[in-house]
Amino acid sequence: xxxxxxxxxxxxxxxxxxxxxxxxxxxxxxxxxxxxxxxxxxxxxxxxxxxxxxxxxxxxxxxxxxxxxxxxxxxxxxxxxxxxxxxxxxxxxxxxxxxxxxxxxxxxxxxxxxxxxxxxxxxxxxxxxxxx
Length: 132
Known about the structure:
- By secondary structure, this protein is an alpha/beta fold.
- The protein has a domain of 69 residues: Nitrogenase molybdenum iron protein domain (Rossmann fold, 3-Layer(aba) Sandwich).
- It contains five helices and four strands.
- Helix 4 links the parallel strand 3 and strand 4.
- The chain is globular, with a radius of gyration of 14 Å.
- The model has no long low-confidence stretch (mean pLDDT 85).
C-alpha cells in the first residue's frame, strides 16, 4: 500500500467517500479527506441538498477524480454527488464493512486491503476530471 500510494502525486491524494470510514487510512498515508456524502457518523442519516451542493463545490475545487462508496451500501447518493459536481467523476466501490464472496477479490482482510489500495491508486491516478 505504501508503494502504491506513494505513486499518487500529493496534490491528487484526496478522498471523498460515502461516509467517514477511511480517516485512519488517510492519516497514515497522507490523504486529504475532502468530505463524505453522508456527513454524520451513521449510514442512516441523509444529507441535505445544501450538504450535497457544498460537497460538490469542494469536489470541483479540489479536482477530485473519484468518489469512493462502500461496496456493501447503496451508492445512489455518491452518484448524485458526482452528477452535482458536473465533472467526469468516477464512483468507485471499496470494501470497508464486509469482505467479498469467494472469488470477489476481497475474501480475506489482506485481500480486501490490496483490493482497496488498487482501487484507490487507480482511481486517483485518473486524468483530472473535466466538466460534463
